[in-house]
Amino acid sequence: xxxxxxxxxxxxxxxxxxxxxxxxxxxxxxxxxxxxxxxxxxxxxxxxxxxxxxxxxxxxxxxxxxxxxxxxxxxxxxxxxxxxxxxxxxxxxxxxxxxxxxxxxxxxxxxxxxxxxxxxxxxxxxxxxxxxxxxxxxxxxxxxxxxxxxxxxxxxxxxxxxxxxxxxxxxxxxxxxxxxxxxxxxxxxxxxxxxxxxxxxxxxxxxxxxxxxxxxxxxxxxxxxxxxxxxxxxxxxxxxxxxxxxxxxxxxxxxxxxxxxxxxxxxxxxxxxxxxxxxxxxxxxxxxxxxxxxxxxxxxxxxxxxxxxxxxxxxxxxxxxxxxxxxxxxxxxxxxxxxxxxxxxxxxxxxxxxxxxxxxxxxxxxxxxxxxxxxxxxxxxxxxxxxxxxxxxxxxxxxxxxxxxxxxxxxxxxxxxxxxxxxxxxxxxxxxxxxxxxxxxxxxxxxx
Length: 448
Ligand code: NDP
Fold this sequence. Notes:
Layout: H1 6-18, H2 23-42, H3 44-48, H4 51-55, E1 60-69, E2 75-86, E3 92-98, H5 104-120, E4 127-132, H6 141-155, E5 164-167, H7 174-188, H8 209-226, E6 236-240, H9 244-255, E7 259-265, E8 268-271, H10 278-287, H11 292-297, E9 303-306, E10 317-320, H12 329-337, E11 342-344, H13 353-361, E12 365-367, H14 369-372, H15 374-388, H16 395-419, H17 426-445
Parallel strand pairs: 3-4, 3-5, 6-7, 6-10, 10-11, 11-12
Antiparallel strand pairs: 1-2, 2-4, 7-8, 8-9
Helix pairs in contact: 1-2, 2-5, 2-17, 5-17, 6-7, 8-9, 8-15, 8-16, 12-13, 15-16, 16-17
Bound molecules: NADPH dihydro-nicotinamide-adenine-dinucleotide phosphate.
């Protein structure tokens, strides 16, 4: 952990005092503040304008009761959240997560990260995040629908295409977005397509949105490798997770000629030396709502490891695509020892601060999630653009836009890192470039 400039240390202490017990939020803020040491020395106006303090305090935080009835008639009470963090660049924008671990601190860490990620895309979107401690696993479609309807019955009054535009995240995919959109439309009597992204293609969704986060992560890895005249082709790759981001990261890596040999879920991991069969994985996870163990049972050479760590599998490229803090210092040392060249975070903050330090000290190309996984929200912004113009683009056109956006995100990070004397440090580059953009807009808007 690096020391903070005294002005930044004061901000951090305020964050700790005001947000007790929110460890992930503290971690996310600390990482950004460490990168800003170099910025405040050159730009005292950001400190004088209390920009950094304001950035660390959400514009609005909502918590509400979500009652729903299961198929047996039992009543359940979950908690819903929406943190509208920063709207300097555009309407609040960020996903909804349904997972039993969701609490206010998790939503705040994700919302805070989202501000910077969204700025990096170069598109006009602010940062927000939400969700619930509801666990969709094992629930019937009818139960998930009733839950989504109940959540939206409160959430609808806070969102809108010019206000706040939610999307999916862990536990929230096409099925959930469909139910949420249906209820929003019913309550408001408005066909407001741009109020949610990640919609189905039949009712205002965008081509490539489903694939975008995973694809974008691999494109970012491709760009990093190119700075060292290396490529993905022929490289041994592992992804963690087996959800939306993991599946499409694996697919894009394969399209670029890589050999993807492992993936995981919270129960364990699979090594498939024949290469992960993405179509089968998608069938098992998306259609049958099964586990990676079910995938392994259908593949001749695949081996399922109950528990354990997917990071023990030797690889040259690692793509963590599951959840926060899934990769610690020991896992990082194992990866480095096994010959890791590059790591791009498909998930949000999957590497602990110690792991990041291990990668950086070993000279590994390391892409933080807020840069590497920005393709998802960028394509959400393209979905909003299509909704606003009542248009619908082809797959190839949309994928080209995504590719160019990721090339630009990479470029912004690399240039900011160079300008502030930390060449090759994508963490510093991502934080500095995005901070400056948001900070300048906040200064222009006055004290609000
Ligand atoms: P999904 O729900 O589709 O998949 C999540 C995957 O991660 C599952 O395989 C799940 O396994 C695993 N996982 C979740 N929690 C844990 C845990 N505590 N321990 C181990 N494994 C876990 O989510 P997404 O693929 O959409 O999201 C994955 C990550 O990517 C998240 O960090 C999310 O914030 C980030 N992200 C997603 C974007 C998107 O467009 N979807 C955009 C940008 C970032 P299991 O089924 O066993 O729980």
